[in-house]
Design goal:
Layout lengths: L2 E3 L9 H5 L4 E4 L2 E4 L6 H13 L5 E3 L1
Antiparallel strand pairs: 1-4, 2-3
Length: 61
């Protein structure tokens, strides 16, 4: 599964990194995906982070 962060929407709140630090990290005040593709063992956490993003900047395919 591939996750992406829309840098134009990201407000760097850190929710994604707090929920799933294995996949997301803040760099230069924007979130970014550390793993591509995201391994199966981290996919549930990444989806939770996506669902918790207050500006819906995270998506997956």
């Amino acid at each position: 599964m591939k996750f992406t962060v829309d840098k134009d929407l990201c407000i760097a709140c850190g929710a994604c990194e707090a929920i799933c630090p294995e996949v997301f990290e803040l760099v230069d005040n924007k979130s970014q995906v550390k793993l591509d593709p995201v391994p199966e063992e981290f996919q549930d956490g990444a989806i939770s982070a996506e669902d918790s993003c207050p500006v819906q900047a995270i998506s997956h395919e």
